[in-house]
Design brief:
The complex is a heterodimer of chains A (317) and B (227). Chain A is globular, with a radius of gyration of 20 Å. Chain A has 2 domains: 161 residues, no CATH class; 111 residues, Cyclophilin (Beta Barrel), CATH 2.40.100. Chain A has 317 residues and is an alpha+beta fold. Chain B contains 5 helices and 15 strands. The chains are: A alpha+beta (317), B alpha+beta (227).
Chain lengths: 317, 227
């Protein structure tokens, strides 16, 4: 059986799929790949199922050795990837032969690199998912360690050589504008505070992880007081007493009591999750229908396109 | 009231204020939604006065989801449930001290009381579990005596030790695992609150009583003093 042996896991590398469904009322976080777009493309390149498990590598720095032949794909943050010291490209299929050394260098501009294996990664399922939520400190819910074997779930035939067209990749180098869908507590915020939130730039703070991103900038002057704790949606923007926004991501708590002017849609959460401390982000007001439409179009594109012209372009079915 | 929260989330609000009858009503509505067998349903998260419903936005949109939830919500408001409002009684031991509760002293001076008064008032009341959330097995309990109620910290702590007992406004809870958190900490409980197989020790609707224990009893019960 072929597998990828982990030599150096990097700062933190965890197995992630599309997340847990139906366990949030036990207080269990949803988990799942943060950058939905990069994760989805890694699987599509290899004809993996929609919710197959990948390795999410924070800041790169991953080394592994192939035991047997494997087909993989690497997407997400740009970094230098080599096979036996020879540079190779991301966002395309890569073939590893027995003994090949894969090295993913540290990513210096963005946070998350995704490594998918043809057939999807195998690991124990817990709470209906393979996603690991490190913060919960539950048994079997830890990051990947040196010596671990990354096994394909379904050994399968290799797909032909493929590459994600440039225009389909997320544009991580552009200014990070993340949309804000106003929520039901939006009217409780003062007008001046909403203007502050949507016209000023914020800097990604040091306290950034899979649970949430703290932003620093012009603080909101008079956020409403704490509310009765209630369920928290993915991407919720909460404003604690210090007036500095926190955007909650996949591993966030299921319930909380800070007031929230709105929610960042899932696809924009991925863009935010790619930012390093010190990066500048800006909120832009949007609406529910636009976010739902964009998400559906992305999904339709995933389901109804096929690879053509030697796997370097996509065509609608 | 049924409102949109995000591209895949809806919030159903049953009341504006916390009420002892709400945990049973909200749990009942969650059961009804689960039993309806909606193929688009992802998660149902009850809390004090609300029920958050997460749906699959690729299967249904906001308006359709609301129209399917509306009859269940309307029905909930009209019929009386024969729920067992008594609930199970769980006793949780707590070592209240400045050593395990870094905010105990602050809370006492803020409320104009002695630390002993805080301990007495916190352990005198029978609480009810209104919601589970924030972390696996984290049970939100109410209501705390108004004379010892205090708001959350303006900036949450980066790490709160496992077992910490905290107060936030008129709510109280025990942190099952070490995690970031903004509650005012007054002591620590040695009883584990979450198990991977049986999930949470506490359930919505349970009654809980805190019992003050000594440092020695806390350590004997497996409690840890790590800061």
């Amino acid at each position: 059986m072929s597998f990828l042996e982990v030599v150096r896991p990097g700062v933190q590398s965890t197995i992630q799929d599309s997340g847990r469904r139906g366990y949030r009322h036990h207080g269990l976080a949803a988990g799942g790949a943060l950058d939905l777009i990069s994760y989805t493309w890694a699987n599509k390149l290899l004809d993996n199922p929609r919710s197959a498990a990948c390795l999410e590598i924070v800041l790169g720095g991953f080394h592994g050795i192939a035991r047997g032949s494997l087909q993989i794909a690497i997407t997400g943050a740009a970094t230098c990837v080599t096979i036996n010291g020879q540079p190779v490209e991301q966002w395309q299929t890569l073939n590893l032969n027995d003994g090949d050394e894969l090295a993913i260098d540290h990513s210096t501009h963005h946070r998350l690199v995704y490594l998918a294996v043809a057939g999807g990664l195998d690991s124990p399922e817990q709470f209906g998912s393979r996603s690991v939520v490190v913060r919960e400190k539950l048994e079997g819910q830890g990051p990947v360690q040196a010596g671990d074997r990354l096994m394909p779930l379904q050994p399968k035939r290799q797909v032909p050589e493929r590459k994600v067209p440039d225009h389909q990749r997320p544009d991580l180098d552009a200014e990070a504008v993340i949309r804000l869908i106003p929520g039901y507590q939006y009217p409780q915020f003062q007008r001046a505070d909403i203007i502050r939130l949507t016209t000023n730039s914020y800097i990604v703070g040091d306290q950034t992880d899979r649970m949430g991103f703290r932003l620093q900038g012009t603080p909101l002057c008079s956020p409403p007081p704490g509310i009765i704790s209630e369920g928290i949606a993915l991407g919720a923007v909460q404003i604690p007493g210090d007036g500095q926004p926190i955007v909650l991501l996949n591993d966030c708590q299921t319930i909380g009591g800070y007031p929230k002017p709105g929610v960042v849609p899932a696809m924009d959460c991925g863009l935010l999750a790619q930012q390093l401390p010190g990066a500048q982000v800006r909120f832009e007001l949007s609406d529910l229908a636009t976010a739902q439409n964009q998400r559906r179009l992305f999904e339709l594109h995933y389901q109804h396109t096929r690879w053509c012209r030697r796997g370097r372009a996509l065509e609608w079915l | 009231m049924i409102e949109a929260v995000s591209e895949d989330t809806i919030l159903i609000t049953l009341a504006e204020a916390i009420d002892e009858s709400l945990p049973a009503r909200i749990a009942g509505l969650a059961d009804d939604i689960h039993s309806a067998g909606f193929t688009w349903l992802v998660d149902c998260v009850p809390s004090y006065t609300t029920l958050m419903v997460v749906y699959d936005p690729l299967k249904i949109d906001f308006r359709q989801a609301v129209s399917e939830l509306r009859p269940l919500f309307d029905l909930e408001g009209t019929h009386q449930r024969a729920q067992d409002l008594k609930g199970r009684l769980v006793e949780l031991p707590v070592y209240y001290s400045t050593e395990t509760g870094p905010d105990l002293q602050w809370l006492a001076s803020e409320c104009g009381l002695d630390c002993e008064d805080i301990i007495r008032k916190h352990s005198a009341v029978e609480y009810r579990v209104h919601a589970l959330g924030f972390a696996p097995g984290f049970a939100f309990m109410g209501q705390v005596d108004p004379t010892i109620a205090a708001p959350r910290k303006t900036s949450p702590r980066k790490s709160v030790p496992a077992g910490s007992v905290g107060i936030a406004n008129r709510q109280t809870a025990v942190y099952p695992q070490a995690s970031p958190g903004g509650w005012q900490l007054i002591g620590r409980c040695p009883t584990p609150l979450f198990d991977q197989n049986s999930l949470s020790l506490l359930r919505v609707g349970d009654r809980v009583r805190f019992k003050a224990i000594s440092r020695k009893a806390f350590l004997a019960a497996g409690g840890e003093l790590t800061p």
